[in-house]
Design brief:
single chain; 200 residues; alpha+beta; Pnp Oxidase, Chain A; binds flavin mononucleotide
């Protein structure tokens, strides 16, 4: 079977892409509105772009043409925190993806613990073993009226006590047990890990 995206509607292409581009890391993004209302929402069209400088991207779809709260906040305050999700927070993370009004604080809704950040004003989430404080670099309207691409620079990384960090900053994945998103409503936990040396 061959599937040509131009023969299908965007809902099907979304299903197709999110089924085959797997497993995807989940950015659980905490922000503050310009009036100081906290917001927390997950995004799995999330990727590291480059390490020099340390940039990540998050593609945030619009809702009936309107920017999501995360995009508005990352734009108006210029800041966001990406919290890494573990299995213990899977249900809470999914709950924060509901379509809530901007006045609703999802951190309070699901009862996770906000901690002050150091370089940004947006809070980080204590239950996440790794938190990336970020500053917004650019917001590109990559699909006009439909999707905004948030490009952000990591300015500080918090690693929970007990997670080993080697001198070269390698962190073994099994020490923090991240969850990943698959197609539909499916999630994956860490499977078996293999080490393979690269050729010189
Ligand atoms: C695991 C997961 C991943 C998600 N990934 C994305 C994504 O990459 N882009 C997006 O626009 N919405 C994504 N969503 C939906 C948003 O979380 C949802 O629209 C949320 O309400 C946005 O919140 P906000 O308006 O407070 O920013 C995802 C939802 C879940 C549960």
């Amino acid at each position: 079977m061959q599937i040509d995206p131009k023969d299908y509607d965007s809902a099907r292409i979304y299903q197709l892409m999110t089924s085959v581009i797997v497993p995807r890391p989940i950015a659980w993004v905490s922000t503050l509105s310009k009036d100081g209302v906290p917001n927390l929402a997950p995004f799995s069209y999330f990727s590291g772009i480059t390490s020099q400088p340390p940039l990540v991207s998050i593609a945030a779809g619009r809702r009936r043409g309107a920017r999501k709260d995360t995009t508005n906040n990352a734009s108006s305050t210029g800041e966001l925190v990406i919290n890494i999700v573990t299995e213990a927070q899977l249900e809470n993370m999914v709950r924060t993806s509901g379509e809530y009004p901007p006045e609703l604080d999802e951190i309070e809704l699901v009862g996770v613990t906000p901690l002050p950040s150091i370089k940004v004003k947006a809070p980080r989430i204590a239950e996440a073993p790794i938190q990336l404080e970020c500053r917004t670099r650019q917001i590109l309207e990559i699909s006009p009226g439909i999707v905004d691409l948030i490009i952000a620079e990591i300015v500080l990384v918090h690693v929970a006590d007990g997670i080993p960090v080697s001198d070269n900053l390698f962190i073994p994945t099994e020490s923090f047990q991240p969850v990943a998103r698959l197609g539909g409503q499916r999630y994956a936990t860490l499977g078996s890990i293999r080490d393979i040396e690269r050729p010189r």
